[in-house]
């Protein structure tokens, strides 16, 4: 474990790590690599912390998802479909909100804290960490999973760049076990 300010890093993970291919698909999400990338890095980090699902009973773990642009591929698909006079499929209304995949992670792991999404104006990790400190200080959560993700502008576009990576960090108060 390491410390970051008043917080303790309880577990950390990245996607990709050596040997990783594409993250596994997430049921109910289509077309985009954003939800699978968030789910895979969160799963890896939480598994390193807790071993297996669910998180311990009574654990109030918040999720703070930080992304300046969110799910670019879904937004581009909806924009192109509407511009062409079409109607986007109903799944796009659900998955176009980045906190839907954060809620998916919370449900799978039984996390009982708030779910927040931030679009940082400055340093994503610093802004996400500041939000985590507030949540813990105010008593809204005991721990927080900070997920940092950005995608290349052409990510998810056929023939485009591969999915950009993501980092997940489970943070607790400085005196957390």
Any chance you could write out the topology, listing elements then pairs?
Elements: E1 2-4, E2 7-15, H1 34-50, E3 61-66, H2 72-83, H3 90-95, H4 99-109, E4 115-118, H5 124-137, E5 143-149, E6 166-173
Parallel strand pairs: 3-4, 3-5
Antiparallel strand pairs: 1-2, 2-6, 5-6
Helix pairs in contact: 1-4
Would you kindly provide a written description of the structure presented here, covering whatever features stand out?
The protein is α/β, with parallel strands linked by helices. The chain has one domain: 3-Layer(aba) Sandwich (Peroxisomal Thiolase, Chain A, domain 1). Helix content is 34%, strand content 21%. It has five helices and six strands; from the N terminus they run E-E-H-E-H-H-H-E-H-E-E. The chain has helices spanning 34-50, 72-83, 90-95, 99-109, 124-137, and strands at residues 2-4, 7-15, 61-66, 115-118, 143-149, 166-173. The protein has a six-stranded mixed sheet with strand order 1-2-6-5-3-4, with helices on both faces. It starts with a strand and ends with a strand.
């Amino acid at each position: 474990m390491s410390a970051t300010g008043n917080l303790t890093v309880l577990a950390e993970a990245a996607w990709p790590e050596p040997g990783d291919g594409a993250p596994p698909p997430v049921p109910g999400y289509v077309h985009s690599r954003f939800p699978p990338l968030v789910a895979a890095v969160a799963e890896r980090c939480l598994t390193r912390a807790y071993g297996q699902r669910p998180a311990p009973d009574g654990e109030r773990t918040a999720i703070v998802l930080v992304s300046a642009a969110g799910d670019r591929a879904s937004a581009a698909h909806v924009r192109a479909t509407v511009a062409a006079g079409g109607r986007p499929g109903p799944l796009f209304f659900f998955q176009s909100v980045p906190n839907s995949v954060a809620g998916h992670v919370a449900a799978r792991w039984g996390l009982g804290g708030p779910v927040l999404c931030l679009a940082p104006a400055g340093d994503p990790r610093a802004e996400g960490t500041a939000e985590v400190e507030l949540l813990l200080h105010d008593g809204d959560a005991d721990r927080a999973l900070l997920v940092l993700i950005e995608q290349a502008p052409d990510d998810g576009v056929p023939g485009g760049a591969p999915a950009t990576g993501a980092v997940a960090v489970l943070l607790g108060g400085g005196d957390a076990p």
